[in-house]
Specification:
The protein is mostly helical. It has one domain. About 80% of the residues lie in helices and about 5% in strands. It has seven helices and two strands, in the order αβααβαααα. Strands 1-2 form a two-stranded antiparallel ribbon.
Amino acid sequence: MLKIKNLKENVLEYIYVISKQPILLRDLLIANRQYNEGMHVESAKLGFRLILSRAYFVYTLFILFILLPVFVLTHQQLAYIDSHISIMGAVVITAIIFMGFNFFKSKLRDVITLKLIQRSWKLHFPYFSYEEYSFKIEAIFEKSLKNEISKRNLEKYILDSLST
Protein backbone atom coordinates (compact mmCIF):
# COMPACT_ATOMS: atom_id res chain seq x y z
CA MET A 1 0.00 0.00 0.00
CA LEU A 2 2.78 2.41 0.89
CA LYS A 3 4.70 1.69 -2.32
CA ILE A 4 1.56 2.13 -4.42
CA LYS A 5 0.83 5.46 -2.75
CA ASN A 6 4.39 6.60 -3.32
CA LEU A 7 4.19 5.49 -6.95
CA LYS A 8 0.92 7.41 -7.42
CA GLU A 9 2.39 10.51 -5.75
CA ASN A 10 5.51 10.30 -7.89
CA VAL A 11 3.46 9.95 -11.07
CA LEU A 12 1.30 12.93 -10.13
CA GLU A 13 4.36 15.06 -9.36
CA TYR A 14 5.94 14.01 -12.66
CA ILE A 15 2.87 14.64 -14.83
CA TYR A 16 1.57 17.85 -13.24
CA VAL A 17 3.08 21.22 -12.46
CA ILE A 18 1.57 22.36 -9.17
CA SER A 19 1.68 25.98 -8.07
CA LYS A 20 3.05 26.80 -4.66
CA GLN A 21 0.53 29.62 -4.26
CA PRO A 22 -2.27 28.92 -1.77
CA ILE A 23 -5.79 28.52 -3.13
CA LEU A 24 -8.17 31.35 -2.28
CA LEU A 25 -11.12 30.46 -0.05
CA ARG A 26 -13.76 31.27 -2.63
CA ASP A 27 -11.92 29.25 -5.29
CA LEU A 28 -11.65 26.35 -2.86
CA LEU A 29 -15.36 26.43 -2.14
CA ILE A 30 -16.26 26.60 -5.83
CA ALA A 31 -13.84 23.76 -6.61
CA ASN A 32 -15.27 21.67 -3.75
CA ARG A 33 -18.79 22.22 -5.03
CA GLN A 34 -17.86 21.28 -8.57
CA TYR A 35 -15.92 18.21 -7.42
CA ASN A 36 -18.82 17.03 -5.23
CA GLU A 37 -21.15 17.38 -8.23
CA GLY A 38 -18.81 15.20 -10.34
CA MET A 39 -17.67 18.01 -12.60
CA HIS A 40 -14.13 18.80 -13.70
CA VAL A 41 -12.68 21.71 -11.76
CA GLU A 42 -10.87 24.45 -13.64
CA SER A 43 -7.20 23.65 -13.24
CA ALA A 44 -6.11 27.30 -13.09
CA LYS A 45 -8.27 27.87 -9.98
CA LEU A 46 -6.48 25.07 -8.13
CA GLY A 47 -3.09 25.90 -9.60
CA PHE A 48 -2.09 22.83 -11.58
CA ARG A 49 -1.23 22.13 -15.20
CA LEU A 50 -0.83 18.89 -17.11
CA ILE A 51 2.42 18.23 -18.97
CA LEU A 52 0.96 16.25 -21.85
CA SER A 53 4.19 14.70 -23.12
CA ARG A 54 4.91 13.26 -19.68
CA ALA A 55 1.35 11.96 -19.42
CA TYR A 56 1.79 10.15 -22.75
CA PHE A 57 5.08 8.68 -21.53
CA VAL A 58 3.59 7.35 -18.27
CA TYR A 59 0.53 6.00 -20.08
CA THR A 60 2.77 4.24 -22.60
CA LEU A 61 4.72 2.59 -19.78
CA PHE A 62 1.47 1.57 -18.12
CA ILE A 63 0.13 0.01 -21.34
CA LEU A 64 3.40 -1.79 -22.03
CA PHE A 65 3.41 -3.15 -18.49
CA ILE A 66 -0.03 -4.65 -19.13
CA LEU A 67 0.24 -5.72 -22.77
CA LEU A 68 3.76 -7.17 -22.99
CA PRO A 69 2.98 -10.17 -20.75
CA VAL A 70 -0.27 -10.74 -22.67
CA PHE A 71 1.60 -10.65 -25.99
CA VAL A 72 4.26 -13.04 -24.72
CA LEU A 73 1.61 -15.50 -23.52
CA THR A 74 -0.56 -15.36 -26.65
CA HIS A 75 2.07 -15.01 -29.38
CA GLN A 76 2.41 -18.74 -30.03
CA GLN A 77 -1.36 -19.25 -30.47
CA LEU A 78 -1.83 -16.12 -32.57
CA ALA A 79 1.01 -17.08 -34.92
CA TYR A 80 -1.04 -19.97 -36.32
CA ILE A 81 -4.43 -18.32 -36.81
CA ASP A 82 -5.70 -16.42 -39.81
CA SER A 83 -3.94 -13.07 -40.29
CA HIS A 84 -7.27 -11.28 -40.75
CA ILE A 85 -8.22 -12.10 -37.17
CA SER A 86 -4.86 -10.79 -35.94
CA ILE A 87 -5.30 -7.55 -37.88
CA MET A 88 -8.81 -7.04 -36.51
CA GLY A 89 -7.55 -7.75 -33.00
CA ALA A 90 -4.75 -5.21 -33.46
CA VAL A 91 -7.25 -2.58 -34.62
CA VAL A 92 -9.49 -3.20 -31.60
CA ILE A 93 -6.57 -3.11 -29.15
CA THR A 94 -5.25 0.09 -30.73
CA ALA A 95 -8.67 1.73 -30.44
CA ILE A 96 -8.94 0.69 -26.80
CA ILE A 97 -5.47 2.10 -26.08
CA PHE A 98 -6.28 5.48 -27.63
CA MET A 99 -9.67 5.71 -25.89
CA GLY A 100 -8.07 4.62 -22.64
CA PHE A 101 -5.76 7.62 -22.59
CA ASN A 102 -8.71 9.97 -22.12
CA PHE A 103 -9.93 7.87 -19.19
CA PHE A 104 -6.39 7.80 -17.75
CA LYS A 105 -6.06 11.57 -18.07
CA SER A 106 -9.50 12.14 -16.53
CA LYS A 107 -8.78 9.84 -13.58
CA LEU A 108 -5.46 11.54 -12.87
CA ARG A 109 -7.16 14.92 -13.04
CA ASP A 110 -9.74 13.79 -10.47
CA VAL A 111 -7.01 12.46 -8.18
CA ILE A 112 -4.93 15.66 -8.33
CA THR A 113 -8.05 17.80 -7.88
CA LEU A 114 -9.04 15.95 -4.72
CA LYS A 115 -5.49 16.07 -3.40
CA LEU A 116 -5.25 19.84 -3.90
CA ILE A 117 -8.70 20.48 -2.44
CA GLN A 118 -7.83 18.46 0.66
CA ARG A 119 -4.45 20.18 1.00
CA SER A 120 -6.07 23.61 0.79
CA TRP A 121 -8.90 22.51 3.07
CA LYS A 122 -6.33 21.94 5.84
CA LEU A 123 -5.21 25.55 5.47
CA HIS A 124 -8.65 27.18 5.49
CA PHE A 125 -10.52 24.77 7.80
CA PRO A 126 -7.89 23.08 9.97
CA TYR A 127 -10.38 21.95 12.62
CA PHE A 128 -12.94 20.48 10.21
CA SER A 129 -12.12 17.27 8.38
CA TYR A 130 -12.77 17.28 4.65
CA GLU A 131 -14.60 13.96 4.63
CA GLU A 132 -17.09 15.04 7.30
CA TYR A 133 -17.65 18.70 6.47
CA SER A 134 -17.24 19.05 2.69
CA PHE A 135 -20.97 18.73 1.96
CA LYS A 136 -22.01 20.80 5.00
CA ILE A 137 -19.74 23.68 4.03
CA GLU A 138 -20.91 23.35 0.42
CA ALA A 139 -24.50 23.89 1.59
CA ILE A 140 -23.44 26.89 3.68
CA PHE A 141 -21.56 28.30 0.68
CA GLU A 142 -24.72 27.96 -1.44
CA LYS A 143 -26.63 29.94 1.19
CA SER A 144 -23.90 32.60 1.24
CA LEU A 145 -24.23 33.03 -2.53
CA LYS A 146 -27.99 33.47 -2.19
CA ASN A 147 -27.51 35.93 0.68
CA GLU A 148 -24.84 37.79 -1.32
CA ILE A 149 -22.16 37.57 1.37
CA SER A 150 -19.02 39.46 0.35
CA LYS A 151 -15.67 37.73 -0.12
CA ARG A 152 -14.34 39.53 2.94
CA ASN A 153 -17.05 38.13 5.24
CA LEU A 154 -17.29 34.69 3.67
CA GLU A 155 -14.99 32.84 6.07
CA LYS A 156 -16.65 34.41 9.10
CA TYR A 157 -20.10 33.54 7.73
CA ILE A 158 -19.12 29.92 7.18
CA LEU A 159 -17.51 29.51 10.60
CA ASP A 160 -20.50 31.19 12.31
CA SER A 161 -22.90 28.89 10.44
CA LEU A 162 -20.91 25.83 11.46
CA SER A 163 -20.92 26.83 15.12
CA THR A 164 -24.70 27.20 15.25
